[in-house]
Amino acid sequence: MGKSQTNGQTPTGAGGYVIPSGSARQAAISAVVNYKAHAPAMNFIETPTQDLFCANVFSKAVMKDRLPKPVFKSLMKTIESGDKLDDSVADIVASAMKDWAIEKGATHYAHVFYPLTGSTAEKHDSFLAPSGDGSAIAEFSGSQLIQGEPDGSSFPTGGIRQTFEARGYTIWDVTSPAYILENPNGTTLCIPTAFVSWTGEALDKKTPVLRSMQALNTQAQRVLNLFGKNDGALVSSTAGPEQEYFLIDRNFFFARPDLLNCGRTLFGAKPPKGQEFDDHYFGAIPDRVLAFMLETERELFKLGVPVKTRHNEVAPGQYEIAPLFEFANVATDHQQLIMLTLKKVAEKHGMSCLMHEKPFAGVNGSGKHVNWSMGSASQGNLLDPGETPHENAQFLLFCAAVIRAVHLNQGLLRAVVASASNDHRLGANEAPPAIISIFLGDQLTDVFEQIKGGGANSSIPRGTLTVGVDTLPPLPKDAGDRNRTSPFAFTGNRFEFRAVGASQSISGPLVAMNTIVAESLDFCATELEKATGGDSSKLNSALQSLLADIMEKHGKIIFNGDGYSDEWHQEAEKRGLRNLKTTAEALPVLKEDSVRELFEKYDVLSARELESRADTYLEQYILSIKVEANTTVEIARTLIFPAAIRYQNQLASTCANLKMVGYEFDTDTLDKITELVKALQDSVVDLEAGLNKHDFGSNVEEAKFYCETVLGAMNFVRKYSDELEGFVADDLWPLPTYQEMLFIR
Asked: Which pick of 217, 439, 483, 649 has the fewest CB atoms within 10 Å?
C-alpha cells in the first residue's frame, strides 16, 4: 500500500492483495478482499419487471377491484381532484385494505410518518384483537385507518410539545398509497400519514407539503382562469429527485468510528489517486455494486417507486439512482423509501450506503437534485415551453412567476437546504455555490430579454446536430446547453434545484418552492385581474407589461455563466444577491418577518410552526458538530496518538541502536513525527476548550460559534493527523485509509 511493513508479515487475500496484520483495520481489509456474494433473491426472467411493479401497493387498480364503485369514485375524487375525504368510506376502505394486506402475509399495520428528524418513523399495531370466547379476530376499522396516536413529545418539536405533553396524532394521507413492507419473518401494512400535535400543529414534514400543494393549486387556478382554462383540474407540483450516494464495505464502516457516529470521515489523507482521471464517472458498474442495484430496484418496483436511472457518479465509490416524476407528496414519500431501501439492501450485500453529503474529503460529495415542475391532468406540464416559447403566453407567465419567486426568496431557498453536512458541499467546485441564481439557457434568456425590450417575436430554434459519421443519424439539438454550476436551473420543462443535500428529505425544498411560487402566481393573477377588469381582450397587453416589469425588477437573479468563478461572486454582490455561505448564516432567515408572513398568508406554516423548525434545525446543526468534535477528540486520543507514539518509539529505538554501533542516522523523520505529535496534542486541547464553552445568548449565537470556532479547531486536529498518516508505518495505522475504502470492492 505504499508504506513499509515493520513486522514483515504480508498475508494475501483474493487477487493477491497484500493484507497488513494486527488491527481492526487489517481485519476489515481481509474480510473485504475475501467477500463472497450472497445468492440472488429473485430471478428477473422468472418474474419480469412489469409483474413486480406495484405488487406490494394498495394501488388504484387494487382499489378499483376491491372497493364498491361509489366508494372507489369518492376516493378518486379526493386523490385526483383534491375534494374533501368522505369519512363514511373509511370503514369500507379499511376492511378492503386489511383483507388485501393479510392475503400478503401482514400481521400488523403501521402509520408511517416523517418527523423533523428527517428520517422515517413508524408505529406498528397488530390486526389481531381478542374475542369474548378466548380466540382472536383480525380487525381494522375506519377510525384506525384514519387516525393513530404516537408520542408527540419525544421527537424534535422546537418547543411545540414539552416532555410532559405527549399526545400526537397520525392522520391518513389518502393521496399517498398504502404499501406492504416485507421482512424475512413477515410483512407489515404501511399507511403514509401526517403527524400533528394535540393542538393541531404540524410536527412533521408531510403536513406542510400537502398545505403548500393546496396553496399552489389555488393560485394556479386563478392564473389558468385568466387564460380561459377553468375546468378546475387539480394543479399539482411534481418532483423527481436524483439520489447520489457512496458504497463502502461494512467492515470498513465499522472500523471507522467517525463514519459510524458522524456519517463522514473526520480523518484521512488524500490517496495517490482520487478522481483525477474521471474514470469512474459513467464507467462499468462493478459486479457487486450492480447486484446491489438490481436488488434495490426490484424492491422499489414492488413498492411502486418508478426508479429509472442508475450509474457511477464522479467520485470513486459514488453512485446515483433517479426516479421518474411523481406528484410532490408521493415523491416525498417515495424518496424516503429509496433512502431506506438503499441502506437495507446494501447491508445484505455486505456494504454500507453513505448518504452524507461529504463522507470523503478531496472527492466529490453527494447531492439530491430535485427536479420540480407543476401541471394538471388537462393542461399537462405548465413549464413546458413548446417549440416556440415566445408564442406560449401561458408558459411565459408561469416561468416568470418562478423567476420572481426565486429572486424574492433567495434566502429561504438557501435556508431549506442548510445543514451541517451540506455545508461541506455547497460552494465547493463540485456543487452549486451558496448564491442562489437561475439558469435559463440561451433560448429562454433571449425570449425574456426580448420581452424586457418591448415584445418577443422569435425563439432560437433547436437545430440539428451532425456528428460527421455517415452511419450515425443527425440528432435534434436542444436550443441551449446545460449549466451544472447553477443551483436552480431550467432543464427543458422543469427547474432543477441542485443545492439539496443527499441526506435531506425533499419536503423542505418542496414546501419552499410550492409556497413562493404560489405567492408569485397570486401576485401575477392579482395584477392581471386588475389590469383586465374581466375583459379578456386586454390580457395580451396586460401580460406583456407584467412580464416586462418582472424581468426589469427580478431579472438580476438570472445567471447563465460559471457559478464557481470568483468573478460571479463579485458580480452577485453587485446585483445585491445574498451569499449565505454556511448554515449558521442561512438558518436565521427562517426567523425573518417576510418568511413568517409568507407561510402564514398561505396557511402553510403558522408563526409557531415556523419558529419550531428554525429552532429544531439550529439545534440539529449544533448537535451534529458537537458529535463530530467529540468523535474527533476520541479518535485522535485513542487511535491516532497511540499509533504515532508507537512509531515514534520505534524510530527512536532504531536511531539509538544505530548510533551505538557507529552508524550515522538521519533523524529528520523522527523530528518531524515528534513535531506533529506535539501539534496533534495541542490541537486536541484547543478543540476541547471550544467544546467547554456554554455561555451563549441564543441558539443563533451558539451555531455561529460552532461554525466559526469548533469546526476550525477540528480542522487543525485533522491537519496534523493526516500528515502523520503519511509517515506512520502502514501496519501501525489504525484506520482504514481512503485508498482502501474508495477502491477495494
From this structure: 649
Query: Positive or negative, the Cα torsion across 603, 609, 614, 617?
Result: negative
**What's the CATH number for 622-743?**
1.20.120.1560
**DSSP notation for 605-648:** S-HHHHHHHHHHHHHHHHHHHHHHHHHHHHHIIIIIHHHHHHHH
Fold agreement (214-605, 622-743) = no
Superfamily classification of domain 214-605: Glutamine synthetase/guanido kinase, catalytic domain (3.30.590.10)
Average pLDDT over residues 227-252: 95
**Measured CA distances, 575 to 83, 506, 553 (Å):** 44, 29, 11
**Per the CATH hierarchy, to which homologous superfamily does domain 49-204 belong?**
Glutamine synthetase, N-terminal domain (3.10.20.70)
| Residues 193, 147 contacting (CB under 8 angstroms) | no
What phi and psi, each to the nearest 5 degrees, are found at residue 307?
A: -70, 140
Name the one residue in this structure whose C-alpha cell is 451569499: 579
Q: Give Cα separations from 123 to 146, 147, 167 (angstroms).
A: 14, 12, 14
List, in order, residues 6 or more apart from 152 with CB less than 8 Å away.
Answer: 161, 165, 166, 167, 168, 169, 195, 197, 198, 203
pLDDT of residue 610: 96
Please report where in the chains the cell 482504514 appears, as a residue.
736
| 192 grid coordinates | 403514509
- Lowest pLDDT segment from 523-537, 548-562, 665-679: 665-679
pLDDT in tens, 14-46: 444 445 544 677 777 887 778 777 666 666 677
Q: How far is CA 631 from CA 259, 687, 702, 718, in A?
A: 10, 11, 19, 12
Q: Is 464 buried (19+), middle (13-18) or exposed (0-12) by CB count in 10 A? A: exposed
d(CA 649, CA 180): 59
CB atoms within 10 A of CB 595: 21
Report the chain's mean pLDDT, rounded to a whole number: 89
Which pLDDT score is estimated for 538? 93
SS3 154: coil
C-alpha cell at 445: 434568456
Residue 430 pLDDT more than 60? yes
Rounded Cα gap, residues 721 and 539, in angstroms: 67
| Domain extent listing, the chain | 49-204, 214-605, 622-743
Tell me how far apart the alpha carbons of residues 610 and 593 are, in angstroms, rounded to a whole number. Answer: 11
Backbone angles phi, psi at 52, to 5 degrees: -85, -35
Dist CA 301 CA 345 (whole Å): 14
Question: In this structure, what C-alpha cell is assigned to residue 502?
Answer: 443527499
Q: What is the pLDDT of residues 312-330, one digit of tens each?
A: 998 999 999 999 999 999 9
Q: Are the beta carbons of 730 and 5 closer than 8 angstroms?
A: yes
3-state secondary structure of 92: helix
DSSP 183-250: ETTEEEEEEEEEEEETTS-B-BSHHHHHHHHHHHHHHHHHHHHHTT--S-PPPEEEEEEEEEEEEEEH
